[in-house]
Write a structure and sequence with these properties.
Largest sheet: none
Order of helices and strands: HHHHH
Shape: elongated
Helix content: 55-70%
Strand content: under 5%
Number of strands: 0
Distance between the termini: 74 Å
């Protein structure tokens, strides 16, 4: 079998290649993938501010979306951005910082953060 420079050595279905549908199918698949990616991004954004999620869950979603970790410094300017984009109070973000810090240091007296929004 000889190398075909037009296909870079790939074996294409002659019927699909001659009909021109492969390019249309490829473009449609790319458009569908982009649409699904945007839909997932929008769903994550809504979950990041959802009252159904705990502050810890919202912050983890924010971290995953942005590829960043919550700063350990309680006065870091990113804390305000995290609070705003997760629809949390600064105190809630700082509480999560303290909870994580205590967990890392092995402090056994730490009580998991309660989600007061669910209390009726």
């Amino acid at each position: 079998m000889a190398f075909d420079p037009e296909t870079d050595g790939r074996h294409l279905d002659p019927a699909a290649a001659s009909s021109g549908n492969w390019m249309t199918d490829h473009r449609a698949r790319i458009a569908l993938e982009e649409s699904e990616r945007l839909k997932r991004k929008q769903e994550e954004l809504l979950e990041q501010t959802s009252a159904r999620r705990t502050p810890a869950e919202r912050i983890r979603l924010w971290e995953r979306r942005h590829g960043l970790k919550l700063p350990r410094d309680a006065h870091h300017r990113l804390i305000g951005i995290v609070a705003h984009q997760t629809d949390l109070a600064l105190d809630q973000v700082r509480e999560e910082q303290q909870r994580r810090s205590a967990r890392l240091s092995g402090d056994a007296t730490v009580v998991p953060a309660a989600d007061l929004s669910r209390v009726t």
